[in-house]
Amino acid sequence: MSRRAIVVAGLSAVAIAASGCSGDSDAEAESPPATTIEQVDFSKFRAAFKARFETTSWYGQITGMKMSSGRLEITAELAPESDAGKFCGEALRLALFGAEPLDGVETATVIGPDGVPLASCA
User: Fold this and answer.
1) What pTM was computed for the model?
2) Residue 44 falls inside a structural domain
3) What is the CATH number of the domain that holds 41?
4) What is the model's pLDDT at position 1?
5) Within a domain: 85
6) What distance in Å separates the CA atoms of residue 106 and residue 96, rounded to the nearest whole number?
């Protein structure tokens, strides 16, 4: 190994040590970027969901949507007397059998504005 290679290797080691690589791990710094496969699949599903349901009377009342532990959770400003069960079933069918199905989805839940589930379907 040449003297120059040794100097470059030594400087690299100093730079790594100075950057904070002391062997400890920062989980947040090592976590995958925001475009994991699951998130990309979910964004495709959301686009398909919008295309399918955008013209319905209840679509504008959706305030959130996420996938959690095999469950599609849809939060909406729906009244308890609304037909949330039908909406839940249609959303789950799209998640299971639509053009952009969600891997791992088993159930769906529609949650009202107060955080109380209005309908669940499997």
Assistant:
1) 0.65
2) yes
3) 3.30.300
4) 53
5) yes
6) 8
121 vs 96: CA distance, rounded Å:
12
**100, exposed or middle or buried, with CB in 10 Å at 0-12, 13-18, 19+?**
middle
On whether the CB atoms of residues 94 and 88 are closer than 8 A, the answer is: no
Domain assignment of residue 65, given as a range: 37-121
**pLDDT for res 96:** 93
For residue 68, pLDDT beyond 70: yes
| pLDDT tens-digit map of 15-65 | 444 444 444 444 444 434 444 445 557 888 899 999 999 998 888 999 999
Residue 14 belongs to a domain: no
Q: Look at residue 97 and tell me if it is in a domain.
A: yes
Asked whether 106 and 120 are in contact (CB, 8 A), the reply is: no
